[in-house]
């Protein structure tokens, strides 16, 4: 299938942005109080923090609200009063502010990717080159998820540490699980299970996009010409 240079460039954009949009959708599926509360229960956060289930939900809800909507104060108290002692100390609040910067940065990248993908889709008007590019991007993501997922499964602690070294300044993300609430509210089990859940969601979404886009990008079957008559009556 011959395509113009502009269509070829647009296809590259579609192939690059498709994985970013898929990952963003998967992350959004788990960035909510329902999932967080479910996995906190599995991780025995009430036992780690000494809080009641109601207090855990109240504190976590405030932290998530500051993380997603701002302002990034992260100064929630157990009883919700402004005069109470903050749940998170200064270093924990600083780290959460850094987390929000990373999250907002990824959100901006995902938003730009979604806009570019939509523009390319409108430009392509459902042509086969667009669907083939989207399928290619999704297939690359499937391979990446499998490789990264295996690395996380075998070397989770090292991979988690590497992630923090890349995105956060040294010494700003180490906390004492015995005394500091941030790592009690979101313990290792919570992060390992959430990582697996997000990876599984990315994999499922990427496979679905790859299959559907590949079907839409197939060449139509060519009609078989009728054989010429060997003789005429």
What are the defining features of this structure?
9 helices; single chain; mainly alpha; disordered C terminus; 233 residues; 71% helix
Overview of the molecule:
- The chain is mainly α.
- The chain is built from nine helices and no strands.
- It has one domain (5-216).
- The radius of gyration is 24 Å and the shape is elongated.
- The chain starts with a helix and ends in a 17-residue tail after the last helix.
- Mean pLDDT is 89; it is low at 221-233.
How large is the share of residues in beta strands?
Answer: under 5%
Number of alpha- plus pi-helical segments: 9
Helix content: over 70%
Q: How would you describe the shape?
A: elongated
SS elements, strand count = 0
Average pLDDT figure: 89
Number of discrete domains = 1
H/E element sequence:
HHHHHHHHH
Radius of gyration: 24 Å
* Class of secondary structure makeup: mainly alpha
Distance between the termini: 41 Å
Q: Tell me about the biggest sheet?
A: none
Summed up:
With 233 residues, the chain is an all-alpha fold.
Question: Layout of SSEs?
Answer:
Elements: H1 5-30, H2 33-42, H3 45-49, H4 53-68, H5 90-124, H6 128-154, H7 156-167, H8 181-185, H9 188-216
């Amino acid at each position: 299938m011959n395509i113009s240079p502009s269509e070829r460039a647009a296809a590259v954009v579609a192939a690059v942005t498709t994985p970013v949009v898929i990952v963003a959708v998967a992350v959004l599926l788990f960035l909510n109080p329902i999932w967080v509360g479910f996995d906190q229960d599995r991780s025995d956060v009430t036992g780690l923090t000494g809080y009641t289930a109601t207090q855990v939900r109240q504190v976590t809800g405030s932290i998530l609200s500051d993380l997603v909507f701002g302002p990034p104060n992260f100064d929630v108290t157990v009883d919700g009063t402004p005069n109470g002692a903050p749940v998170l100390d200064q270093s924990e609040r600083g780290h959460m502010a850094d987390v929000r910067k990373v999250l907002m940065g990824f959100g901006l990248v995902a938003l730009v990717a979604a806009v570019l993908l939509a523009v390319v889709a409108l430009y392509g008007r459902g042509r086969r080159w667009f669907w083939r590019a989207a399928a290619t991007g999704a297939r690359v993501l499937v391979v990446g998820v499998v490789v990264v997922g295996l690395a996380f499964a075998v070397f989770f602690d090292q991979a988690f540490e590497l992630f923090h070294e890349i995105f956060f300044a040294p010494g700003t993300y180490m906390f004492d699980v015995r005394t500091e609430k941030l790592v009690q509210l979101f313990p290792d089990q919570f992060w390992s299970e959430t990582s697996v859940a997000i990876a599984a969601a990315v994999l499922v979404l990427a496979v679905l996009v790859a299959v559907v886009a590949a079907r839409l990008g197939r060449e139509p079957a060519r009609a078989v010409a009728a054989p010429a008559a060997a003789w005429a009556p």
